[in-house]
Amino acid sequence: MEFAQGTSLHSFTKTKIHRKLADKECKPIFKQVLQAIEYCHSRGFCHRDIKIDNIIVDKALKVKLIDFGFSTYTNELLKVYCGILSYEAPEIVTKTPYYGQMSDMWALGILLFTLLEGFYLFKASTDKELYIKIAKGVSVQSSGEYFS
Fold first, then answer.
1. Would you say residue 148 lies in a domain?
2. Of 54, 59, 83, 137, whose CB is crowded by the most CB atoms within 10 A?
3. In total, how many domains does the chain have?
């Protein structure tokens, strides 16, 4: 097992103004995350728990993807619904069978938005309300709820 030295991407963003990464800083970090997921997908694995806390960044901005506890090897529809609610794809929150690689792609989009904007794309006061917003695609921007 390899030692992943550094800090979580979540902790790293806390050191930034408004928890945002500048485009120039975000691009190499996100590219490495994409490469890690591309590698997993090319071998038939899906991560299913991509989130800002599951990425380690070292001082040289080298990235390690961690926590493969929900990962699985399959190209079939999945019926196990896992992950962090803010990153879950609509098919997961609606309990519809889904492809793991596609749910990873959704989570990557949420991750990129979070890195660039400093907050999650979907926000609600309860989990139930958040499920509804994700299922309907009612984001912070589309609902007029801006915050930093």
1. no
2. 54
3. 1
Residues 38 and 33: their CA atoms lie apart, in Å, by 9
Q: Is residue 111 part of a domain?
A: yes
The 10s digit of each residue's pLDDT in 34-88 is 999 999 999 999 999 999 999 999 999 999 999 999 999 998 999 998 888 999 9
Annotation marks residue 49 as catalytic: yes
List of long-range contacts for 69-72, beta carbons under 8 Å, 24+ apart: 71/40, 71/45, 71/46, 71/47, 72/45, 72/46, 72/48, 72/100
CATH number of the structural domain spanning residue 106: 1.10.510.10
Q: Residue 83 contacts by C-beta under 8 Å, 6 or more apart in sequence?
A: 48, 49, 50, 51, 70, 92, 103, 107
Annotated catalytic residue: which of 23, 49, 58, 127? 49
The whole-angstrom separation of Cα 129 and Cα 60 is: 39
Tens digits of per-residue pLDDT, 78-94?
999 888 899 999 999 99
User: Residue 1 falls within a domain, yes or no?
Assistant: no
Query: What is the domain range of residue 132?
Result: 7-143
At residue 49, the 3 state secondary structure works out as coil
